[in-house]
């Protein structure tokens, strides 16, 4: 269930509400079915882990928990935009070749994430 996410892995986003309001981070994973995303450094929780090679002693590690995708926004990358480097609403634009891009509703410029 849930609407398709407008954000995806590697996007740089800003949290717009909650304890992490104003914090920016990269999306580590997107979970469209849950409508959630995991953002680097956001929503930190302690997790108990069993000993593994990576964590030989096990115990507690701090990790990001998924947050609602609707709580994050993309940033406009267009320097001429009045909302440059700030969170912006986006709309989906379907190109003639049927590829989709996400554009800032203020300036109409596509927001691109390098992979
Ligand atoms: Zn813009």
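^ structure tokens above, recovered residues below v
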């Amino acid at each position: 269930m849930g609407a398709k996410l407008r954000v995806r892995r590697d996007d740089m986003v800003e949290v717009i509400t909650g304890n992490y309001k104003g914090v920016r981070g990269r999306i580590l994973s997107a979970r469209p079915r849950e409508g959630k995303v995991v953002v680097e450094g956001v929503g930190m929780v302690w997790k108990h882990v069993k000993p593994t090679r990576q964590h030989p002693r096990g115990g507690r590690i701090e990790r990001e928990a998924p947050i609602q995708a609707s709580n994050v926004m993309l940033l406009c990358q267009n320097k001429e935009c009045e909302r440059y480097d700030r969170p912006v609403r986006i709309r989906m634009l379907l190109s003639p070749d049927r590829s989709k891009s996400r554009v800032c509703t203020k300036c109409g410029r596509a927001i691109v994430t390098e992979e």
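The pocket of zinc ion is lined by residues 76, 78, 81, 83, 88, 104, 106-107, 109 (CB under 6 Å).
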